[in-house]
Write a structure and sequence with these properties.
The chain is an alpha+beta fold. The protein has helices spanning 15-25, 34-41, 45-57, 81-90, 93-102, 116-121, 142-156, 167-171, 177-184, and strands at residues 32-33, 61-66, 69-74, 108-114, 131-138, 159-165, 188-189. Strands 6-5-4-7 form a four-stranded mixed sheet. A three-stranded antiparallel sheet has the order 1-3-2. The model is unreliable at 195-199 (pLDDT under 50).
Length: 199
Amino acid sequence: MQAPPPALLPLLRTAFQGELLAWLYLHPQEETSLAEIASRFGVSSATASREADRLVEAELITERRHGNLRLLQANSHGRLAGPLTELFALTYGPIAVLGDLLLPLAGVAEAHIYGSWAARYSGERGGVPNDVDVLVVGSPDEDELYEAAREAERLLGREVNVHRISIARWREPGTDPFLTGVQSRPTVQLEAFEGKGKE
């Protein structure tokens, strides 16, 4: 049985399409190997390869071979580059940029998107969320956290609300209504994308 189209952008066949295109279009100067893409988004190499073939044929992305590496990049010179960048920033963009902005900050143990964006990403139907809510677990510097959130807003074209809590409070929420509410609904744990250029 075929999976339903993703709630974040029902025009797509799969969520992986959105994740792949968002990553490439929101990092237009970077070449990313097919193996890295497959690993990052938890798909098989065959699935990643088939999707890349389709997108290269449609001239939405470009590829370059370097030995055994198959390196992918957004087609930033195509006529659709601007509209696609905006579209994927508004839909799958949080997955593509927030982990790399927040997780390297000193004191950050983990970070999770919650609220309406996480609900859409998890398959709950509805409109495109107006903002993105992020829970940062740890003790990062408030100014650095604020700067990272503003940079995310610039890249994503929408408000990014960051809420910081301690590791102890996250692990033992007790009767805290905010945390029990967050933990009872869909969340998406963020990851940083490391190890560029390996296959």
